[in-house]
């Protein structure tokens, strides 16, 4: 079978069983469990926002009824166990039976086209709402029929408005009538939107004009399952996926409509965050949930908002590493080559044994350090003291990457720092006195030494499972893309009877090559300009990383713009705002707003993981170069930006 | 087997044949003709117009389309202006429309816009309409052709509809496009595939491979509109560069080996310089699949033309004939290797003509 890591996103796997064996339920735990526990997932509008590849559609597909039914029927299946657990904790399954019948409607298809029709806005929006409702009704009924093999008569719609008008509007009280009516409405509305030449407005039927409102009438669905003589009460859930493709006015109309409290069906909107203006993206990055149960002053309290990327940089990294590990192991288990040899974990195959330079390279490095010592006029005694500091640091460190090469590189940094902190002799005497301020070795500085070796001696820096996870900008799809050639190589080695695990040198080569490829192949709106921008940021960050004193420890990977200056970008430089928006949406950069440093607030324009690997800079977050908006404009070399 | 609308078909594949046909057909009779053409930066914009204006003279009217995209490159804008002026200079009676390709939210709207503009053309005034596809994008040219075809058929086929193109795969290669982020049907080419009940059909995707479009095609493949059960990539062969198909296949090897799961027998070869070859191939596949999947919910072929204009004409004819869906990604902007393009256009242009509707066909066709 093809390498499942090359199937970049799980949602494109057609076979439901294969999909469920690969998909990881971690995002359900991370983002949906809490609102579910607070009773905010099914009684009001839920908005889920995230970057492309963050897993929105995967979640929507996982909980679609046909898949939910597969896992709940076989809860002891090794791959389904965590999914069932996640679904149970999120209130989707109770006592092995589903509580919700979910249908996903991809909005990325023809809905936006209705906005271009030459009708009044109310008619255009009415058409879209009718289409959404008809498709949802068809989807719910079809899901139950396929899952339980029941007929229309075994399904009963419970309504909370039993007036004649309400029932007539949805096709009567009987399921067969509701089904036929929904089919008719869908075809009628579809033909209006899909036709090359729109029909005159006076020829549109009532349903097309929005006089079809099952969402306002329906409550629960009761289905009688003949085989088990069970009767289920299910709450219908409609998921509008990729709603960012709607026109802003369409989106607002749908949002307002679905926010109405009297609506009993569950409804979720999934959207990419780049549909929002730049300021909204920044807002999303600075608060994980904008509406909560107890926040009565919040105008959005009718809505639960879930951002599928958190704000706490450290905990996010940890969470994503765990999710990536689960995802990788599930995918690996599908490869026969690995299964036959009972190889279960990708992380185990990625050696973290530190690299070492060759003897000749170390000799050259020693010469370099010696020259630095001579150039800075540092005395032998001082050098010995600095070496003792290094020994003392490593004796208390758990990091095993402490070979002679790292020590020499670190020594060079310490020498530069030392020389900056002592009074230089006018007569060129050797420096031996104590520095004005003691030099303290920290982990970041040691990483900085390792990055300098990457650039000077091509010493591997990106290896081990976490390097791939961290390089993925917390994006599941990007992780698979980055890991794919590693898995392919391991598979080839196993087939050829070679050792499966990869040493750090090979890993570093493959990961960097793949990162180069990903950056080279960026093909999204404004990608040309985004590339120019990150070229500028990357080049200056490399310079910062290679500074002899390593002032920013392991080096920067971001530009920091004063927050108030950054806030003016959308108004003053709309083109630049657009570039930043798409860069952030496609994980080329990450925007970190209101980052406090030196009593000021900064907005960081951080390079995404692949871009960091591409340029050979740190994946740690927080270090940045202070810059201004004109610096960004200069990078784009286009005054109108 | 279902009958084919363009079998037989009147068409000309060499510049000499096209010029001879035009001279005899347009030159001899006192025919009024409307030329619909793109007035863009493409160096091929004026070639067909030059040829026709020389033959038809004052009886040639022009309907020129300027595709407007956000933040165009200054050099391309300058070239488009020059081409536009050139076209207006060749045709005494002409009209130009500024066609917004994108809405303010980034949604592609070229299709509905062109239909709106063309709907206002009084086609009954003309004996012939020639659509020059050389400098028109897929998102404009496909709805344009379908709209004019519908208008011609509605008028009782009294106007002849021709497609012409200045073909050059080499010039195509000098143009690089920047894709937008939306995968959509070309307006009017949804094939009713979006109806919920239709999703049960067995889906075959026929992407036309082009250099450097891997990511775009992958995005199309993964989209809900396509999401195919099977894929048959289209490669140009025979082609001017005999190794072109191999080079293309090689550049798509990771897709072939990965999610696409393509092997040799899945590949469709189509003559790079004969649009009818691809048209017939697609229809043959459609006929076979219709039979095979008749009892299994039916078959749906989805097209994604890209790159070569001539192959795109083949795909267009197949889509018109069988009402097949066409899925594409609109370009948000272009860049041009001007120097190479100018050198290539200086060589004798290669014209192709397809007579789409009109006198040469029996009044009642499929």
Question: How would you describe what is shown here?
Answer:
The complex is a heterodimer of chains A (641) and B (366). Chain A has 641 residues and is an alpha/beta fold. In chain A, 49% of the residues lie in helices and 12% in strands. In chain A, a hairpin with a 4-residue loop joins strand 6 (218-225) and strand 7. In chain A, helix 12 crosses helix 19 and helix 15 packs across helix 16. The longest helix of chain A has 28 residues, at 121-148. The two termini of chain A are 47 Å apart. Mean pLDDT of chain A is 87; it is low at 287-299. Chain B is an alpha/beta fold. Helices cover 37% and strands 24% of the residues of chain B. Chain B has twelve helices and 14 strands. Chain B has helices at 15-28, 47-56, 74-90, 110-118, 138-154, 169-174, 214-222, 244-251, 253-257, 275-292, 309-322, 338-346; strands at residues 10-12, 33-38, 60-68, 93-100, 128-132, 160-167, 175-185, 202-207, 230-231, 234-236, 268-270, 299-304, 327-336, 350-357. In chain B, helix 7 (214-222) links the parallel strand 8 and strand 9 (230-231). Chain B is globular and about 55 Å long. The mean pLDDT of chain B is 92. Classes of the chains: A alpha/beta (641), B alpha/beta (366). The A-B interface holds A 2-3, 6-9, 12, 14, 106, 108-110, 112-113, 115-118, 135, 138-139, 142, 183, 186-187, 190, 194-197, 245, 247-248, 521, 523-525, 527-528, 575, 582, 640 and B 71, 103, 105-107, 109, 112, 115-116, 119, 143, 146-147, 150, 178-185, 187-188, 190, 192, 194-197, 214-216, 221-225, 227, 229, 254, 257-259, 261, 332.
